[in-house]
Amino acid sequence: MRAPWTIWRYVTREVLQYSLLGLAAMAIVMLTRSLADVLDELMLADFALGELAVLVRLIAISLLIYALPVAFLFGVLLAIGRMAADVEIIAMRACGFGVASLMVPIGAMGLALSLLTVPLCLEIEPMARRELARTLQSLLVRGAAIEPGRFNRVGDRTFFIDERSSDGSLRGIVISDRSDPQRPFTVFAESGELEMDADTGVLALRLGRGDVHLELSDDEARYHRVSFASLEYRIDLAAELGAGRQPRPSEFPLGELRALSARIEAGEDPGELRKNPANYPLELQQRYALPAAPLIFAMLGLPLGMQRKRGARSWGVILCAGLAFTYYAMFSFSELLVVERGFPPRLTTWAPNALAAVTGVALLLRAGRAR
Known about the structure:
Blueprint: H1 5-43, H2 49-85, H3 88-94, H4 99-145, E1 151-154, E2 157-164, E3 170-177, E4 185-197, E5 202-215, E6 223-236, H5 237-242, H6 254-265, H7 279-289, H8 293-305, H9 312-341, H10 345-369
Antiparallel strand pairs: 1-2, 2-3, 3-4, 4-5, 5-6
Helix pairs in contact: 1-2, 1-4, 2-4, 2-8, 2-9, 4-8, 6-7, 7-10, 8-10, 9-10
């Protein structure tokens, strides 16, 4: 029998259009929710439009490893469900195109999406998480430093801003600098402006009309006061934020995560880790296991979508939410078993994929036998 190219193209087009629709809807919801979590604090930082664009890009990359597979599952369920409701699936099977013929384009799309997700999970998404953590912390510290009416700390420095006008200028500024215990000082300024160099991570306060009060050591004059008409006070936030913050396991580069996981599994001392050491081999295995999701969703989505239901679209949305929740909930449960119960990360992390794959194959075989 001639290869059913027309059927394959038709199924591919239907799945793709619903998948893109689902991806757009998920992107709006997930990005809005992620930005809303930090928006109140970010407003204090007076961030520019370019910085907001960077945040949106990094958040979008960090969400893709979940959004792409779920959007694909959404596309499969709605496309196949709509075709089943319109009796198109029965017509195709009557013409000799069974479940195997339908699985070819859907499985190919799932495999392609899985291959695309591999570099996302291994390197791109962790890199985006690292950049996002640095960017957010930099903006939040900058916002805290200029929040009016409160004393705020940045490392060994304490800031107080009495007033901030609508144009961004500052009034009534007090800075207590204890970064050098041998030479602490306090700055009082009538006015100031704040600038942030995103490339170098340097926060610059351009102060106007004030005094610097120096507290000197015992063998020098105990106190000096220096007046100024203008003064630039700079803080290297990159150094401040880098010190004392340990990256999360999800932020580690792949090479470092592999080396650290090998040391932990070999029973060596991993050094000072704030997280449970089991989190690191667990994170490594999850990066390998998660790219299988689109291929598994292809095996699950096709037979479940073929069931004729009234209101195929609404049924597909509900089924998509249930399947996605169950699949990722199994990963969360396996994570709990590894971290809290000491189960081996390699076997436990891959168990959800194995269970879902077996279920998908069973459903495909059952759909193939159905009349």
